[in-house]
C-alpha cells in the first residue's frame, strides 16, 4: 500500500505523531488488522522499531492489541481519535485556566505587580499611549478600560460589531448599568438591526452615519480602531489624554445632536 508523503506529513501534524507512528497508524487503518511483521512490511518502518511504535500507539489510544498468537493490532477509527484529542485539549485548557487563576495568589505575582507600579509611577498619564495589534489583545485592553470606567462611556461602532459579540456586550452593558456609568452608544449600519439590538439590550442606541469604531472612557482616554493591516490583523490606538478625549467626545456630541 503506497501512501503519499503529503498525507503522512499532514496526519503527523494534525494528530501530533512522529513519522514512524504516522506510517504505522495509516498502515493499520488501511489493513484493518495486522501483525507487527505485516505492519512493518506495509508501512516501511524497520521491523526492529515497529513493536515499540505499536506499543506507543496502543498507549495513546490509536491502536488496539488483539489477543491472538501472534498478536495482531487494529487501528482505531480516526473520528474516535479526533474526539478524544479534542476532549484532551479541552481538559488541559480548563486545568491551565485554573492554574493561571491561582497565579494571582502567589508571592511572585505580588512582586511583579509592585515592579509594574514602580515603573509606572514616574510616567505622566498624559504621556501614555499605545498601539495595539490583534483582535484578542485589543479586546482584552477594551475590557480593562471599560471595567475602570467611573462616570461615562461613549461607544461608536457598526451595529454588526455589537450583534456579532452580543454575549460580550450584554455583560458589558450590565456591568456599566450596575456601576451607574452613563453609557452613550451610536451605531452605523442597518437601521432595522439597530432597532433590534436596542430592544435586545434595552438601551437607546442612536443611528449615526459615521463609519468609525471607538470607545471614550470618562472623557479621559480613548481606544480608536484603525483599519486592518495588509495581513487582515486589527490595529487600534489607545490614548490616555484628557484633552484629546474631551475634544473628541464634544465633537461626537455635536454630531449626535445633528443626527437626531
Write the layout of secondary structure elements.
Blueprint: H1 5-15, H2 19-31, E1 33-35, H3 36-43, H4 47-60, E2 63-66, E3 72-75, H5 78-103, H6 107-120, E4 129-133, H7 135-147, E5 152-158, H8 159-164, H9 166-178, E6 182-188, H10 191-201, E7 206-207, E8 214-217, E9 221-226, E10 235-239, H11 242-259
Helix pairs in contact: 1-2, 2-3, 2-4, 3-4
Model description:
This protein is an alpha+beta fold. The protein folds into 2 domains: 5-79, Winged helix-like DNA-binding domain superfamily/Winged helix DNA-binding domain (Arc Repressor Mutant, subunit A), CATH 1.10.10; 127-259, Endonuclease Chain A (Endonuclease, Chain A, 2-Layer Sandwich), CATH 3.30.870. The protein is 57% helix and 18% strand. It has helices at residues 5-15, 19-31, 36-43, 47-60, 78-103, 107-120, 135-147, 159-164, 166-178, 191-201, 242-259; strands at 33-35, 63-66, 72-75, 129-133, 152-158, 182-188, 206-207, 214-217, 221-226, 235-239. The chain has a 7-stranded mixed β-sheet with strand order 4-10-9-8-5-6-7, sandwiched between helices. A 3-stranded antiparallel β-sheet has the order 1-3-2. Strand 9 (221-226) and strand 10 (235-239) form a beta hairpin. Helix 1 packs across helix 2. The protein is elongated, with a radius of gyration of 28 Å. The model has no long low-confidence stretch (mean pLDDT 85).
Amino acid at each position: 500500500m503506497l501512501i503519499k508523503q503529503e498525507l503522512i506529513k499532514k496526519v503527523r501534524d494534525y494528530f501530533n505523531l512522529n513519522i514512524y507512528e504516522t506510517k504505522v497508524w495509516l498502515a493499520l487503518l488501511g489493513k484493518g488488522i495486522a501483525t507487527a511483521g505485516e505492519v512493518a512490511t506495509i508501512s516501511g518502518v524497520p521491523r526492529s522499531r515497529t513493536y515499540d511504535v505499536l506499543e506507543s500507539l496502543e498507549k495513546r489510544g490509536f491502536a488496539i492489541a488483539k489477543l491472538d498468537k501472534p498478536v495482531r493490532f487494529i487501528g482505531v477509527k480516526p473520528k474516535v481519535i479526533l474526539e478524544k484529542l479534542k476532549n484532551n485539549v479541552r481538559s488541559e485548557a480548563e486545568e491551565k485556566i485554573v492554574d493561571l487563576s491561582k497565579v494571582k495568589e502567589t508571592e511572585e505575582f505580588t512582586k511583579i505587580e509592585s515592579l509594574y507600579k514602580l515603573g509606572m509611577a514616574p510616567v505622566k498619564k498624559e504621556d501614555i499611549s499605545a498601539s495595539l495589534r490583534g483582535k484578542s489583545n485589543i479586546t482584552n485592553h477594551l475590557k480593562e478600560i471599560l471595567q475602570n470606567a467611573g462616570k461615562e462611556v461613549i461607544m461608536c461602532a457598526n451595529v454588526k460589531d455589537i450583534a456579532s459579540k452580543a454575549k460580550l456586550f450584554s455583560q458589558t452593558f450590565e456591568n456599566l448599568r450596575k456601576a451607574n456609568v452613563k453609557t452613550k452608544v451610536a451605531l452605523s449600519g442597518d437601521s432595522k438591526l439597530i432597532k433590534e439590538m436596542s430592544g435586545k439590550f434595552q438601551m437607546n442606541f442612536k443611528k449615526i452615519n459615521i463609519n468609525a469604531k471607538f470607545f471614550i472612557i470618562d472623557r479621559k482616554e480613548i481606544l480608536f480602531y484603525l483599519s486592518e493591516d495588509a495581513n487582515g490583523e486589527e490595529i487600534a490606538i489607545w490614548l490616555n489624554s484628557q484633552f484629546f478625549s474631551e475634544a473628541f467626545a464634544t465633537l461626537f456630541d455635536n454630531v449626535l445632536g445633528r443626527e437626531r
